[in-house]
Structures are given as structure tokens and as C-alpha cells.
Amino acid sequence: MSMLEAAHEHDIELEGKDEMSSSGACEGSLACSTCHVIVMDVDYYNKLEDPTDEENDMLDLAFGLTETSRLGCQVIASPELDGMRLAIPSATRNFAVDGYVPKPH
Amino acid sequence: MTAMAIFRSRTWLSRSFSSLSSHPLRVCVVGSGPAGMYTAEKMLKAHQGAEVDIIDRLPTPFGLVRSGVAPDHPETKIVTNQFSRVAQNDRCSFFGNVTLGSSISLSELRNLYDVVVLAYGAESDRALGIPGEDLSGIYSAREFVWWYNGHPDCRNLSPDLKNTDTAVILGQGNVALDVARILLRPTEELATTDIACHALAALEQSSIRKVYLVGRRGPAQAACTAKELREILGTKKVQIHIKEEDLHKSPEDEEELKNSRIRKRVYELLSKAATTGPSLPSSGQRELHFVFFRKPDSFSESAEYPGHVSGVHLEKTVLKGVGSGKQIAVGSGQFEDIECGMVLKSVGYKSVPVPSLPFDHKNGVVPNAGGRVMSDTSGDPELIEQGLYVCGWLKRGPTGIIGTNLHCAEETVASISHDLEHGLIASPSTSTKPGREGLLQLLDDRNVRAVPFSGWEKIDCEERKLGSLKGKPRVKLGSWEDLLKVAV
């Protein structure tokens, strides 16, 4: 089971995941980056198999890319990953609404 | 039963049986491509009392996912499943064949809805503004893409692929790579895609064997991305030509590459392809040439084929730093020519304004702050157009991928939510806007036959049925007439 599917099973809001499907916009076919997750602990990141060229191509375009970013649909659950924590990049982080209240025209 | 009556009975049903508040927030999204659909999805989610109508000038939804994504990239179209579920939501209605600016004006729409979000993209092209641009045989990539994707507006483009063996593509972004690939791929491989039949037929008879992808700057600045570049470099039976001297990197180039993972990986792919070099020339091989540091100066007219293009006159460029890590191409006064019988300009799409919509003509976008439409380009934060928002290319310019709109929609919807909370949009409980009822009445009065989502589903079904007879995922209905006939 990929992290994307696991998130769905446990009702976690994974950006780009549609409530009815168990994967992102491209439904796991490595044609988008909407299931982008950030592995919070570098030790767990290092345990993962290196991303393929195809995954890296999609990661290139991911919003809020970090050094420990992966596509959720490519990270397969296994016992040695027990305890791994994943973060989801927040779009509103970069588009901060700074409290300014514009007056209507 | 008229479409109007069908909508009315559905609305009655949803009012009787749903738990809609008696004063829904009435939202209209103009455009059903990724920007519009992600906006609708997030509005429905963030506002449980919202009623969202999506209008589109085509009878078919999904914008460039249907008419822009290349036929040989079916995985990129899977996102339409998610978009379909949005349109099928109880509180959402799709109205195709409704054109902002002719079926209904922007002012009328703003009078009908509490919130209007314009997400209608960019249906025109940046012009080069150079001599000969009007010669036949010169098309924008947008038109060519619409042509091979069966868009009803370009079905009669009839590009002549038989008068020449060479096509020049100006631009090196992903759209440029798409059109190059469609011109060069073995047609047997295209035959099993949803490419328009008229395009497949023309490509099967094409005499084009050489394609040039021309960029003003160097490989460190090429706008394409790794996946698409990797793919085209691997096209069967195509020899890749890249000059090793073009790969020379200046210190400024090194700095640019260091700061951009995307550019670095693209440069490495181009570099590897250049040093691998073309395999021994063999007859029957098609050629793809990456030409760097050349900008188009003018187009030449053919003597044998008057009125038709016969070549591109190019000026060699050098790069000049303009601060903050950016370099621009500057003409060097030296020129050269590439002979060709077809030119595709892939230098950027451009949005089209509608009456009473503030517009920044220089940048080709609607002036906005976080998606809130501003009354002019002065930047004065006081001048906000109440209840009017933008999302997608109309907001940001024609860049990015499908997923870029997800974040763009988040920002616009956050602005809407904020404005609602702070009383900057009329609260639904005090609003008198008629929303969907008003829209349907107006369209009915004007004899506009809006196509509901179920109408698209009929088109979809028919296209897939026709496709199954030919070993294709679908055969697109190519004319307005056929689309509207099946939809009703």
C-alpha cells in the first residue's frame, strides 16, 4: 500500500487526493505532483529507495519542494518505515493573507 | 422537455430533498478547465451552503485538459475523473455552450451571483510583431494543438504538411516539444490515441522530416521540463542534433543552474544528448534540431508558392545579465536563415479581455491581488472589484502545469473566504442575487441552448463508442454542430 492509499484509508487530507479515489490527480501514474509529501525525518527518508528519473521529473514541478520530498504514490509502506512522519506542503503558506482588509470599490 | 424545464425540476428536487440553507452563497465560475474546476471543488468544500455554477463557451468541459494535452499523453488526462466528480456534486451545475461576452455579459453575471470567478484562461497568442508574420504556413502552436486535438474552432485549419520537408518551431517550452513530437512520431504510434482523425490523415501524408526547435537563449534557459525532454529525445527513428558549442556555460549560467533544479536537470539531458551525438546518418531518419541563441527577425515569402512562408531569418543573440540572476537575449547583428515551409510560433498564449473587465494589456492578465480583481493596474489596494475574482492563466499568465492551478485556486478561494468573513461580499442571507434561476431565465430568454453535464456525458459516451470501433480511446466529435446535436 502506498502512502497515498494509507492516507485515504485513515481519512487524512492529502492535497490533490479526491475523496473517491485513492490517489492524486493522475491516480498514481506518475503524471502529476499533487500527492507530494515531505518526509519529516531524514533517517526515514534515507531508508526509502531512491526516486526513479520519472519520479524526479514530477518532483521537479512539485509545490514547496524540499530535500526530503517524495511523491506519496511512490512510497510503499513496509515494517521498517513504522513511525515515519509525513508533512503536506501548505499552499497558503506562500500566499499568506496578511490580515490586510481591502476596501471594496 | 426543454433543457430549461429539466434544470428547473432538478433545482426543485434539490431544494426539497437536500439540506441546502435557504440562502445559498451563489457562485459562478467562468471556465471549466483546471483553474475553474479546482476553484469549484474548493468552494464547494469550504462553503457547505454554496451553490456553484460553472459556465464554459464549449459544449465540452475541461479546457486544455481536453484540447491542449497531447493525444499521446493519456495519463495527464486522468484528472478529468476528479473534475467530473466536482461537476456531479449536488450543489454544482455545469452549463456548456454559454459564452461570457456574448451569451451573457460580465455585468449581468455579477448581478446574478454573489461571487464570480473568471477562470477562462488564454485563448489567444503573443505576436512576434515581425515582417511576414501573416504569411500562410505560419501558425501559432495553440491553433496547431487545437487542430490535432479536434477543437471545433480549428477543424478547418488544414495545415499543409506536404509542401515541405522542414518545419521550424519558435520556442522551446513544453508546448513546442509537444508539437515537434506530434510532427515526428511514427504515425502508427499516433493511430491508437485520441488524436483527431483529420490530423492523423494529414500526418500520415506529411513530407516533414526535419523539425527545428529555436530558442532565443541557451540550453540553461530552455523552458521545457525534464519529462517532456526525455520523451522527445527518445522518439523512435529520430536523430537528435544539438551543437556542443551551444552547451558552453558562463558563470551566470552556472549560477542560474545552481539555483534551479528544473533547469539543471534539463541542461544535463541536453548536454548528454549533444555529446552522444546523432547516430550514423541513415536514410529515412527524421531529424530534430535544437537551435539556441537565435531570435526570429522576419519571415521570407516563397517565390514558387506566393503568399506562403519559405524560411525564417534569424538573428544570433548573446546573453546579457539584467540582475537578480536573469539573463536576456540581445541581438548581435549577425544573421542566418533556415528554409522551411511551415512555422509554428510557440512563444506564449495570451488572455482575451471582455467588456467591463479591468485588464493589464502589457502582461495579458487581469490585475489582481491574491485573486481579487483590481479596478486598474495602479496597484492601489483600495480599488477592488467587489465579488469578482480570477484564477488560473487569466490571473497568473500562461505558465505552469495542471497542478499549478490547484494552488492558484487555493489562494483565490482563501481570498473569497476571507472577504466573506469580513463582510466584503454581500452575506448570502441578505443577498438578493437570483443565481442559477436568474441565469437559466436569461439564457432561455435569449434562446441559448446551455449544455448540462449530462449533455457532455452523452458526447463522452458517443466519442468512446466511436473510438472502440477504431482501437482508439475515443474519436472526438469535431464540429459544433455534431457536439450540440449529440448533447441535447
From TrEMBL, chain A:
Its cofactor is [2Fe-2S] cluster. Residues 1-20 are annotated as: Disordered. It comes from the Eukaryota. The keyword Metal-binding applies. Residues 1-92 form the 2Fe-2S ferredoxin-type domain. The keyword Transmembrane helix does not apply. InterPro entries: 2Fe-2S_ferredoxin-like_sf, 2Fe-2S_ferredoxin-type, Adrenodoxin-like, Adrenodoxin_Fe-S_BS, Beta-grasp_dom_sf. Pfam families: Fer2. Keywords: 2Fe-2S, Iron, Iron-sulfur, Metal-binding. GO terms for molecular function: 2 iron, 2 sulfur cluster binding; electron transfer activity; metal ion binding. One of its GO terms (cellular component) is mitochondrion. GO terms for biological process: P450-containing electron transport chain. PANTHER family: ADRENODOXIN-LIKE PROTEIN 1, MITOCHONDRIAL-RELATED, FERREDOXIN/ADRENODOXIN. This is 2Fe-2S ferredoxin-type domain-containing protein. It comes from Linum tenue.
TrEMBL record, chain B:
SUPFAM superfamilies: Nucleotide-binding domain. NADP(+) binds at Q172, G173, N174, V175, R216, R217, E228, G400. Its EC number is 1.18.1.6. FAD binds at A35, L64, L100, W393, G400, I401, I402. Its cofactor is FAD. Residues 26-216 form the FAD/NAD(P)-binding domain. It catalyses: 2 reduced [adrenodoxin] + NADP(+) + H(+) = 2 oxidized [adrenodoxin] + NADPH. Keywords: Electron transport, FAD, Flavoprotein, Mitochondrion, NADP, Oxidoreductase, Transit peptide, Transport. GO terms for cellular component: mitochondrion. PANTHER family: GLUTAMATE SYNTHASE 1 [NADH], CHLOROPLASTIC-LIKE (PTHR48467). This is NADPH:adrenodoxin oxidoreductase, mitochondrial. It comes from Linum tenue.
